[in-house]
Amino acid sequence: MCLAIPARVTTIGPHNMAEVDIMGVTRNVSLDLVPEAESGDYVLVHAGFAIQVVDEEYANETLELFKQLDIVEPEDV
Amino acid sequence: MDLSTGFRDPDLAARLIKAIHDTATRPMTLMEVCGTHTMAIAKYGLRGVLPEDVRLLSGPGCPVCVTSNTDIDIAIEFARQPNVTVATFGDMMKVPGSRSSLSREKADGRDVRIVYSPLDALALAEGQPDRQVVFIGVGFETTVPLIAAAIKRAAETGLGNFSVFSAHKTVPIALGALVNDPEVAIEAFILPGHVSTIIGLEPYRFLAEEYSVPSVITGFEPVDVLQGVWMLAKQLAEGRADIEIAYTRGVDPQGNTTALKLMNEVFEPADAEWRGIGIIPGTGLVLREHYAEFDALQRVPVSPEPPKENPGCQCGEVLRGATLPYECRLFANACTPEHPIGPCMVSSEGSCAAYYRYTDYGKS
Ligand code: SF4
């Protein structure tokens, strides 16, 4: 029930409401909890509200870190 | 491209699995607190790729599952009052209380509506001014700020026919109660990603400092979960107990300060009854005096009959990690997602439902 899905903010309208794109689907969500969100940002959407601006830089850093790990030999798994 | 794709990359998952096998050199019991983790772990078959003696127990992090029969009975009683519309998240509909469920009440002609957002409940109230719309507030810190925002909007617009039954719960203190349970012996926690998006890292600090239990805040894609397990395995191998964040893209160490402020403006801590655990002081939330007029219990007084439990259901033990779903005698026999006997089989993220849907029930 605590699922939140990444979505990209497309337009910000009146009353803190914004249009977001969730994998091609357009939704209206409230930005009451993330007043700092801007058009083009990724946000986490939960039950009609954006609850966090996603840090894309951290996302990429994390992925880069794992690319440095040894690859698994198939017989190890 | 959507942001999550990289975190489903099988190549990265394979690298992390290798890292876990290299690091986890002794048996360890981890608990994934959050129901959304339980679901992700079952769906991607992650138990099967971990070292055999890394045990993952599912915890009490499915809000619907931990809601007590007392509270479910109250929600049902609201639906039975004249001129009341009950608005609820879909997960609550089929959850059996002592004698009925919201979906049974709806089938009997009561006005029960499923809403996707608390804002939809506000719109319902605006659209039918002659009816009282009671929103069933179930959820953890992820959800509470949204409901606080809805209450605040109702207060600002003078919406007099909207109220909330607050059966919300907060997570960190409840984990302290689980750590104290000698029957379960949890060595480390996979902490919920989106609860932590709101509350940040600080409220968990006592787990490391008082109980020496390493804990990592983890996201929900397969690579995220593996990263969380790897970081815990490292802490245990190094004899450390820290609170760490694996899910850095979604969690700020401070949490969401706007959301926390709003939550504290509208709600204050109270005691809460958790299914299977009992009353845990300070883990519930009630409306503060200033917003008390939006408290459904004050708006529409109800007095349900005393609650009773289904004697065969072991959902309470399952929620503490003391019993595995398939160890319940009713699992997959009398109790299935179509005919759930306990809430752990109803909610899509309940442990019993996750085991039923995605595993061979632990028979192998
Ligand atoms: S299988 Fe059904 S009856 Fe058994 S513990 Fe789970 S929900 Fe309860």
Describe the structure concisely.
Chain A is of the alpha+beta class and 77 residues long.
What is the overall silhouette of chain A? Answer: elongated
Q: Please tally the helical runs of chain A, counting DSSP H or I stretches of 4 or more residues.
A: 1
- Please give the radius of gyration of chain B in angstroms: 21 Å
Number of domains as seen in the coordinates of chain A: 1
Main features:
heterodimer, A: 77 residues, alpha+beta, SH3 type barrels, five-stranded antiparallel beta sheet, 1 helix, 5 strands, 39% strand, disordered C terminus, B: 364 residues, alpha/beta, Rossmann fold, 3 domains, five-stranded parallel beta sheet, four-stranded parallel beta sheet, globular, binds iron/sulfur cluster
Q: Could you describe the 3D structure shown?
A:
The complex is a heterodimer of chains A (77) and B (364). Chain A has 77 residues and is α+β, with helices and mostly antiparallel strands. Chain A has one domain (5-76): SH3 type barrels. Chain A contains 1 helix and 5 strands; from the N terminus they run βββββα. Chain A has one helix at 56-67, and strands at residues 5-12, 17-22, 25-30, 42-46, 49-53. A 5-stranded antiparallel β-sheet of chain A has the order 3-2-1-4-5, with no helix packed on it. In chain A, a hairpin with a 2-residue loop joins strand 4 and strand 5 (49-53). With 364 residues, chain B is an alpha/beta fold. Chain B folds into 3 domains: 15-63 and 185-245, HypD, alpha/beta domain 1 (Rossmann fold, 3-Layer(aba) Sandwich); 66-170 and 255-299, Rossmann fold (3-Layer(aba) Sandwich), CATH 3.40.50; 315-358, no CATH class. Helix content of chain B is 38%, strand content 17%. Chain B is built from 16 helices and 11 strands. In chain B, helix 7 packs across helix 12 (257-266). In chain B, 54% of the residues are buried. Classes of the chains: A alpha+beta (77), B alpha/beta (364). Iron/sulfur cluster binds next to helix 14 and helix 15 of chain B.
